[in-house]
Write a structure and sequence with these properties.
Layout: H1 4-25, E1 29-34, E2 39-44, E3 49-54, H2 64-93
Antiparallel strand pairs: 1-2, 2-3
């Protein structure tokens, strides 16, 4: 059975891995797509929007509402992918350790 010093070191190591995973999330990019690729949003796993790409065919004034809907859909797609990337990074950082239900990380 590990002694208290070993347990404290393990906890410190886990905290360091989580802090590094948090820092790394801003380097992980995901791409949200909607309209069959007409709108593409790149975001980091922390949710920062990096770029928006809109196909020129959508830039007619009559397409305004559709473009707005496609942008929202692409952002939501990117956010969902960012959430998955974030969860994977946390899982890797904790070595698969299950956190208690409702436990919120600082990110």
């Amino acid at each position: 059975m590990p002694d208290l010093n070993e347990i404290m070191k393990m906890a410190q190591d886990a905290q360091n891995r989580l802090m590094q995973a948090q820092a790394d999330l801003d380097k992980v990019e995901v791409e949200g797509v909607s309209g069959g690729g007409l709108v593409r949003i790149k975001a980091t796993a922390k949710g920062r929007i990096v770029s928006v790409d809109i196909d020129e065919s959508l830039l007619a004034p009559s397409e305004k509402q559709m473009v707005e809907d496609l942008i929202a859909a692409a952002i939501n797609d990117a956010r969902a992918k960012a959430d998955v990337a974030s969860q994977e990074a946390i899982k890797d950082a904790t070595g698969g350790l299950q956190l208690p239900p409702g436990f919120k990380m600082p990110f």
